[in-house]
Design goal:
There is one protein chain. The chain is mainly α. The chain has one domain: Glycerol uptake facilitator protein (Up-down Bundle), CATH 1.20.1080.10. Helices cover 73% and strands 0% of the residues. It contains 11 helices and no strands. α1 runs parallel beside α4. The longest helix is centred in the N-terminal third of the chain and has 27 residues, at 2-28. The two termini are 25 Å apart.
């Protein structure tokens, strides 16, 4: 279990550092111009790499919603959920803190409260100014899509060697859709890390980025249990 939670800590650290880092560094240097596609690929590529590097150790969840979805689908023990979730959140917090340390080296410094640190938000804090309801619906649906692919790609009848590719590309897809709405979470740990340093509005809105992804994951887990019941027995 120690090895598993260590892998989840490291993997979630890489995910948040790579994904959120691409967003905040691109914002600090707009001439780099990686844009929406670049940030989406950064999240997808980090999961793709970690799936092969850390998957054999912990399953490479890197996301409380993924752990919950797998548990609901009968693929993961509920007893191991607390350890995984704590490790994931800690990895995200350390990554966000390190990003802030690096950003503070800018000539003008960096204020997380005003810069945002790639935190998730809705209404005035949505990139496209989308409402709370729009943010809630999009996070539920996009997490459902992401978890459905994860659960299908890792089912017994699937090609295990290709699962990381499908999962990484799907995470890229959902970011392409969701970044304009909420900066896209689909991952409560990813949301918690930056929010703790931004404070204020980010912490006040953090509830949505726990509720919606976990709800989407539970729905996907229930569907997977129905679709793959015979093959997973």
């Amino acid at each position: 279990m120690v090895k598993k939670v260590t892998a989840e800590f490291v993997g979630t650290f890489i995910l948040v550092f790579g994904g959120c880092g691409s967003a905040v560094f691109a914002a600090a240097f707009p001439e780099v111009g990686i844009g929406l596609l670049g940030v989406s690929l950064a999240f997808g590529l980090t999961v793709l790499g970690c799936a092969y590097a850390l998957g054999p150790v912990s399953g490479c969840h890197l996301n409380p919603a993924v752990s919950v979805g797998l548990a609901v689908a009968g693929r993961f023990s509920f007893k191991e959920l607390p350890g995984y979730i704590i490790a994931q959140v800690l990895g995200a917090v350390v990554a966000a803190g390190l990003l802030l340390v690096i950003l503070s080296g800018l000539p003008e410094g960096y204020d997380a409260a005003t810069g945002g640190l790639a935190a998730n938000g809705f209404a005035d804090h949505s990139p496209g100014k989308y409402s709370m309801v729009a943010g809630l619906v999009s996070e539920v649906v996009l997490t459902f899509i992401f978890l459905t692919v994860i659960l299908g790609a890792t089912s017994k009848n699937a090609s295990a060697g290709q699962a990381g590719i499908a999962i990484g590309l799907t995470l890229t897809l959902v970011h392409l859709v969701g970044i304009p709405v909420t900066n896209l979470s689909v991952n409560p740990a990813r949301s918690t890390g930056p929010a703790l340093f931004v404070g204020g509005w980010a912490l006040a809105q953090l509830w949505l980025f726990w509720l919606a992804p976990i709800l989407g994951a539970v729905i996907a887990g229930g569907l997977s249990r129905f679709l793959f019941e015979d093959s997973e027995a």
